[in-house]
C-alpha cells in the first residue's frame, strides 16, 4: 500500500492471509510479519489498522502489531492499552459495575449456569445481546471478544473476558462476522464521500435526547459547515460510538460533560489515541469540580468571591467568616444546578447536611449580587466572544428552576469583545489559561473596576442566536480553525520525527 493511497482506508492484519477470506473495498489484508518488517508500512501516515492476529500474548507478533502501530502513529484496534486492559479484565470486578444492568437484562431467563458471548466489532449475532455486546466493546475496543458469564445463585457475573482468535469463531457465525466487518469498515465513510480537499476527520459528540445541550441544532449545523469548508470530513457520534473514536483525527464534545460520565471516557480515550480533543480530559477534570477551581483560582491569585472549603469540622468557622446570606456549591454543580443561597442558620444547617452526604468538601462563597454575570468565551488563551447574562426575574441567578425542574432565564446581550471592559477580559483570560488552552466559558461578576471569577466552564454554550450574534459564522469557523492549528502542528511534528 503506497503512502498517500486514498483508495485504501484500512489494513486488516492477520497471521496468515487465509485467516481472512473476505474482500472489502478500501481494506487491504496483510500478514502480521509483513506489517512488522516491511518499510512501506512504517512510512504510512495515519493508517487505520485492525489487528486480527490469533493471540495478543506478550511479545508475540499480535502483541507487536498493536505496540508498533501506536509507535507509527497508526490508529490501531485494539491498541496496546486495550491489550493490557484485557489481561486485567479476567478479574470480574473490573467489569461488573460498568455493565451490571445490561448484563442482568440480557442474560435473564437463559436456563443455564454459564453463557459465552462472542462480540464481533461491537455486535452480537443475537438481537437480545446487542446492547451488552456494544457495552463490552466500548469498554474494551477489540475487533473480536469473548465474554464468559456465570450464574452465582442470584445474579449473573463476568467470569472472563478476552480476545478470541479468528479460528475460534464458530462456522455458524462466519457470515455474520464478515457482514459486521464490512459495516464497521465502511459505516463512517458512507454515504458521505470524502472530497479531495479533505485533510482531517472530525467527530462531534452529541446527545440528541439532551434537554439543555451546549449547542442547539442550528449551531451544530454551523459547526459542520465550518468544518467542511476548512477541509474536514464530519461525523456526529453518540455515546454508543465509543469504539469508533480512534478512527478520527479530532473530537469536539458538544454534550454536557462530567467526570463520572461517558463524555469523560470519550475525551480520555481520544486523547490517548492522539486526537485533538475539545474538551480535553484534563479540562473536564479541572473545570467540573468547583473545589478544584476554587483552589486553582487562589493559587494563581485570580480574584473570586470570598471562598471557603466547607467540611464537617468547620461549619461554625464558615458562618463566622462569610455570614449570611452565603452561596453553597456542590463540587460538580453546573448551569445553576447544585448551587443554592442560604439566608440563615436554619437553612445553612439543613442544606449543608444534605450537601455533605454527597461530598466531603463543599464550596462556600460570600453572596455578592449583581444585575448580570459576564460570560467571556476564551479559545486558545484569547477572548472569543462576550455576553451579559441577566438574572432571572425575581431571582439571584441567571437561571431559575422550580421544584419540578422547569427553568426560566433572564435576558442576554452579546457584545463585541472590543467593547468589553479590559479588566473583564484580562481576568477571564487568566482564569481560562489556568485551566488549559482549549475552549472555555468564564463567568464573572463586575463591581466597578473589580472583577471576580464565579466559575470556568469547560463546555460553554455556543448556541445559534445567542453567543454567535456578533461574530455570526465566524465564531464557528474560529473554533474549527483551532482544530486545524493543532492538527497541522501535530502533523509537522510527526513528519519531523
Summarize the SSE layout with pairings.
Layout: E1 10-14, E2 27-31, H1 32-37, H2 39-43, E3 48-51, H3 61-71, E4 75-77, H4 80-88, H5 93-107, E5 114-120, H6 130-139, E6 144-151, E7 156-163, H7 174-186, E8 200-205, H8 217-229, E9 232-237, E10 250-253, H9 262-272, E11 276-278, H10 281-288, H11 290-299, E12 307-310, H12 315-322, E13 326-334, E14 337-342, H13 345-356, E15 362-366, E16 372-379, E17 382-390, E18 399-401, E19 407-409, E20 412-415, H14 422-435, E21 439-447, E22 450-457, H15 473-496
Parallel strand pairs: 1-2, 1-3, 3-4, 8-9, 8-10, 10-11
Antiparallel strand pairs: 5-6, 6-7, 12-15, 13-14, 13-15, 16-17, 16-21, 17-20, 18-19, 21-22
Helix pairs in contact: 5-6, 8-15, 9-10
3D structure, described in words:
Helices cover 34% and strands 26% of the residues. The chain is an alpha/beta fold and 497 residues long. Strand 6 and strand 7 form a beta hairpin.
Amino acid at each position: 500500500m503506497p503512502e498517500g493511497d486514498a483508495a485504501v482506508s484500512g489494513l486488516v492484519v492477520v497471521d496468515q492471509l487465509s485467516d481472512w477470506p473476505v474482500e472489502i473495498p478500501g481494506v487491504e489484508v496483510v500478514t502480521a510479519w509483513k506489517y512488522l518488517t516491511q518499510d512501506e508500512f512504517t512510512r504510512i501516515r495515519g493508517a487505520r489498522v485492525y489487528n486480527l492476529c490469533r493471540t495478543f500474548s506478550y511479545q508475540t507478533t499480535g502483541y507487536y502489531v498493536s505496540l508498533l502501530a501506536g509507535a507509527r502513529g497508526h490508529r490501531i484496534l485494539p491498541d496496546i492499552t486495550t491489550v493490557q486492559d484485557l489481561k486485567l479484565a479476567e478479574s470480574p470486578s473490573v467489569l461488573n459495575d460498568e455493565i451490571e444492568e445490561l448484563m442482568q437484562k440480557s442474560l435473564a431467563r437463559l436456563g443455564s449456569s454459564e453463557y459465552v458471548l462472542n462480540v464481533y466489532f461491537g455486535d452480537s449475532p443475537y438481537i437480545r445481546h446487542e446492547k451488552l455486546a456494544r457495552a463490552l466493546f466500548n469498554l474494551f475496543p477489540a475487533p473480536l471478544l469473548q465474554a464468559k458469564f456465570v450464574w452465582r445463585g442470584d445474579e449473573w457475573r463476568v467470569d472472563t473476558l478476552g480476545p478470541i482468535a479468528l479460528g475460534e469463531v464458530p462456522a455458524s457465525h462466519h457470515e455474520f462476522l464478515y457482514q459486521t466487518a464490512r459495516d464497521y469498515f465502511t459505516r463512517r465513510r458512507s454515504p458521505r464521500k470524502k472530497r479531495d480537499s479533505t485533510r482531517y476527520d472530525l467527530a462531534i459528540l452529541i446527545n440528541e435526547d439532551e434537554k439543555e445541550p451546549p449547542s442547539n441544532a442550528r449551531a451544530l449545523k454551523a459547526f459542520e459547515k465550518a468544518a467542511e469548508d476548512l477541509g474536514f470530513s464530519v461525523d456526529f457520534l453518540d455515546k454508543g460510538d465509543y469504539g469508533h473514536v480512534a478512527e478520527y483525527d479530532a473530537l469536539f464534545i458538544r454534550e454536557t460533560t462530567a467526570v463520572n460520565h461517558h463524555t469523560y471516557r470519550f475525551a480520555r480515550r481520544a486523547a490517548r489515541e492522539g486526537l485533538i480533543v475539545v474538551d480535553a480530559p484534563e479540562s473536564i477534570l479541572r473545570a467540573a469540580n468547583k473545589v478544584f477551581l476554587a483552589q486553582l483560582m487562589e493559587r494563581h491569585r485570580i480574584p473570586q468571591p470570598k471562598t471557603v472549603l466547607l467540611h464537617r469540622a468547620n461549619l461554625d468557622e464558615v458562618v463566622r467568616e462569610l455570614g449570611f446570606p452565603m452561596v453553597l456549591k456542590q463540587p460538580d454543580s453546573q448551569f445553576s444546578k447544585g448551587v443554592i443561597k442560604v439566608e440563615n442558620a436554619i437553612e445553612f444547617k439543613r442544606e449543608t447536611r444534605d450537601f455533605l452526604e454527597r461530598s466531603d468538601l463543599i464550596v462556600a462563597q460570600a453572596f455578592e449580587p449583581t444585575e448580570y454575570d459576564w460570560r467571556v468565551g476564551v479559545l486558545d488563551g484569547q477572548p472569543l466572544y462576550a455576553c451579559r447574562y441577566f438574572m432571572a426575574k425575581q431571582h439571584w441567578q441567571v437561571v431559575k428552576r422550580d421544584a419540578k425542574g422547569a427553568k426560566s432565564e433572564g435576558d442576554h446581550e452579546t457584545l463585541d469583545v472590543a467593547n468589553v471592559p479590559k479588566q473583564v477580559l484580562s481576568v477571564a483570560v487568566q482564569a481560562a489559561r489556568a485551566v488549559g488552552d482549549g475552549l472555555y466559558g468564564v463567568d464573572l461578576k463586575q463591581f466597578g473596576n473589580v472583577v471576580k471569577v464565579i466559575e470556568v466552564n469547560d463546555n460553554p454554550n455556543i448556541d445559534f442566536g445567542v453567543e454567535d450574534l456578533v461574530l455570526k459564522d465566524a465564531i464557528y469557523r474560529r473554533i474549527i480553525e483551532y482544530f486545524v492549528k493543532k492538527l497541522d502542528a501535530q502533523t509537522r511534528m510527526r513528519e519531523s520525527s
